[in-house]
Specification:
Elements lengths: L11 H29 L3 H9 L16 H27 L5 H26 L5 H28 L4
Helix pairs in contact: 1-5, 2-5, 3-4, 3-5, 4-5
């Protein structure tokens, strides 16, 4: 039995606070995605180059150097911690939405798996396993898709009238 009220039954001020929070969070999330596009061009070779450098390419427009281990550990650590908290909050809010159980379960768990696969994959790319760039792109896409669908589901619930 679910003892927590669905989002649509929350008091109006709390629903608006949640709505505005998700708007601000989404600006931050998609700004980060724009940064990824800027640094990797959303390609496998761009991902590899971003972490392993391009010193071997004399025709490169921008010189990039292999990231230091300290920097890689910081990137992986910061992203896994922050994204796991973001997706925990989203999972909690999705849990309080009136949506089909299979969709709800997918949206609650998939992004957490994608966070581990994406940033674990980035670390493996840095170690020299370059084919992981394909896995990173797929898991990153699934993570972003899950984020967008979760936010849309939550928005719909927040804007619905109580039944």
């Amino acid at each position: 039995m679910n003892s927590l009220a669905p989002l649509r039954h929350w008091p109006r001020p709390l629903r608006w606070l949640t709505f505005v929070f998700l708007l601000v969070l989404s600006v931050g999330y998609f700004t980060g995605l724009a940064f990824v596009e800027h640094t990797t061009e959303m390609t496998g070779s761009g991902i590899v180059e971003n972490y392993n450098g391009n010193e071997d390419n004399p025709e490169a427009e921008t010189m990039k150097f292999k990231k230091a281990e300290r920097d890689m550990l910081n990137i992986v650590h910061a992203h896994i911690l922050s994204l796991s908290l973001i997706f925990f909050v989203l999972a909690f809010l999705v849990y309080l939405c009136l949506v089909p159980k299979k969709l709800k379960n997918f949206l609650m768990v998939e992004p957490m798996i994608s966070v581990l696969v994406t940033f674990g994959g980035i670390y493996l790319i840095w170690l020299g396993i370059e084919w992981m760039s394909v896995v990173v792109m797929i898991s990153g896409f699934l993570m972003t898709l899950s984020y967008a669908v979760s936010v849309l589901v939550i928005f719909k619930e927040l804007l619905s009238k109580p039944q």
